[in-house]
Design a protein that fits this description.
Blueprint: H1 2-7, E1 8-10, H2 12-28, H3 34-57, E2 63-68, E3 73-74, E4 79-87, E5 93-99, E6 112-116, E7 121-128, E8 134-138, E9 141-146, E10 152-158, E11 162-167, H4 170-175, E12 202-207, H5 219-225, E13 229-233, E14 240-246, E15 254-255, E16 258-259, H6 260-277, E17 281-287, E18 291-298, H7 303-312, H8 323-333, E19 339-343, H9 349-365, E20 367-373, H10 376-383, H11 389-414, E21 418-422, H12 427-441
Parallel strand pairs: 3-11, 14-17, 14-19, 19-20, 20-21
Antiparallel strand pairs: 1-10, 2-4, 4-7, 5-6, 5-9, 8-11, 9-10, 12-13, 15-16, 17-18
């Protein structure tokens, strides 16, 4: 009996009719002839109410529904969630789907209405965009079914307590999977790189085609073939590439709901895939008070899965990062000259000067690229019209901070440290660009 009561819901349409009948009873005091007719209407309403309950509850298996989610959610991306509802009633039904989505999304008004024909099946798709890694727990999938009479609804519950983990953005990984092989990189928003030098590893002699570097012409082979021939060299492969992720307090700043740390984690996953496709060795680690989540640079088939799991498990309290510990750890554990891509953030020159001795120490033995972020809100302030003295003051301060970011790039360049100053949404593309540029120039 309690189960029946929990499943039964009176619809608004029933209450509208009931209010109308009550109004007629009120009018019967003025027009007594309405009194008996109103009692008949009330009796008819109750009869139809009982009929509606019987036709909804007589079929124990009125509908079937289930929620289909990805095996894991992709952080920062739109993930499709599909709800399938199958109607076993002999008549068309109106459904109201209320899915209890994870609390992290803070959505409390989720509702989808659909009409499903008899003995038919319908699919409903919606999207969720997580902004932090971890476990996401779905609650009940509630489906409220209404017959053509629309007086009552019956609630069905499915798929209780379903957990889906949220991993770094593997959707972006697939999106940029072909970048390492494509010559039309501008289609992805990636700039073309002018090749400055060659490695010394000879591969073959081939016929000249427009676009080949004329400095590689092989005159002896040209004389023998009586056509232009050029030497082709192989790119250096199996070089160590490490991505170091600062998980200190400077990476807590939010942008579009995601922290800078999560943007760096997503970019690390995508760049690791490109590195392995280019036959280099990809590794990573994170640091704050100490160095953690270490993956040694290798070129194995299981390397991407190892990097993905370690990126998923990056956890932090956003303490002040210890760059002296980072320098000592790199000096101890990375003996071969490597490309180290450091994801961090510097807002002021003072912040850079505190860590600069350690960055210079790393750059002596390795090729160091410091990746840090533009504050896009500052650009919004500078582009806004100043109407008051306070607005003028805000614009001047914003321009000062923007200029200071450019000074940081110049200061790093003085000591042979490469840098990438980027907006968070462009982080993945800009880091891929920098890696491809370094490979093309052969400076590693």
């Amino acid at each position: 009996m309690m189960n029946f009561i929990k499943q039964l819901y009176l619809n608004n349409f029933f209450f509208y009719l009931l209010i109308g009948i009550v109004a007629l009873f009120g009018m019967a005091f003025v027009f007594p002839a309405l009194y008996n007719a109103t009692w008949y209407l009330l009796f008819i309403l109750l009869v139809f109410l009982v009929i509606d309950i019987l036709i909804l509850f007589s079929n124990k298996k009125g509908i079937e529904a289930h929620r289909t989610t990805p095996e894991k959610l992709s952080n920062g991306d739109e993930n499709p969630i599909v709800v399938t509802v199958k109607n076993f009633y002999t008549f068309a039904i109106q459904t109201k789907i209320i899915d209890e989505i994870p609390f992290q999304f803070q959505v409390r008004n989720f509702e989808i209405k659909r009409k499903i024909k008899n003995a038919a099946q319908d699919e409903v798709q919606y999207y969720l965009r997580p902004t932090e890694r971890g476990e996401y727990h779905f609650g009940n999938l509630n489906v409220y079914v209404t017959s053509p009479l629309q007086l009552v609804s019956k609630r069905y519950r499915f798929d209780k307590d379903q957990m889906v983990p949220t991993y770094p953005s593997y959707i972006q990984l697939r999106k940029y999977d072909l970048i390492a092989f494509s010559n039309n990189l501008f289609q992805y928003g990636v700039k073309k790189i002018r090749r400055i030098g060659h490695t010394m590893e000879f591969e073959q002699i081939k016929e000249y085609v427009p676009g080949d570097d004329i400095r590689t012409l092989n005159w002896k082979a040209t004389a023998k073939k009586n056509s232009l021939m050029v030497n082709q060299f192989q790119d250096e492969k199996s070089q160590n590439i490490y991505m170091a992720i600062d998980k200190g307090r400077v990476m807590k700043m939010p942008f579009n709901g995601m922290s800078l740390l999560d943007y760096a984690i997503n970019a690390t996953l995508v760049l690791s895939n490109v590195i392995l496709k280019k036959q280099d060795k990809a590794g990573m680690f994170s640091f704050s008070k100490k160095v953690e989540n270490r993956v040694v640079a290798e070129k194995r088939t299981s390397q991407m899965q190892k990097i993905l799991e370690n990126l998923y498990n990056v956890k932090t309290d956003y303490f002040e990062s210890d760059y002296s510990r980072l320098y000592a750890d790199i000096k101890k554990n990375i003996n071969q000259r490597s490309l180290i891509i450091l994801y961090t953030n510097f807002e002021t020159m003072d912040g850079l000067y505190r860590q600069l001795p350690y960055l210079k120490g790393i750059a002596k033995s390795h090729l160091l690229v410091v990746v840090f972020f533009q504050n896009t809100e500052l650009y919004q302030i500078t582009n806004k019209k100043a109407d008051t003295i306070q607005d003028v003051y805000d614009k001047v301060i914003a321009e000062k901070f923007i200029f200071e970011k450019k000074l940081i790039v110049t200061e790093l360049k003085k000591y042979g440290i490469h840098s990438v100053l980027t907006q968070p949404e462009n982080l993945t593309l800009d880091t891929i660009n920098k890696y491809l540029e370094i490979k093309a120039r052969g400076i590693l």
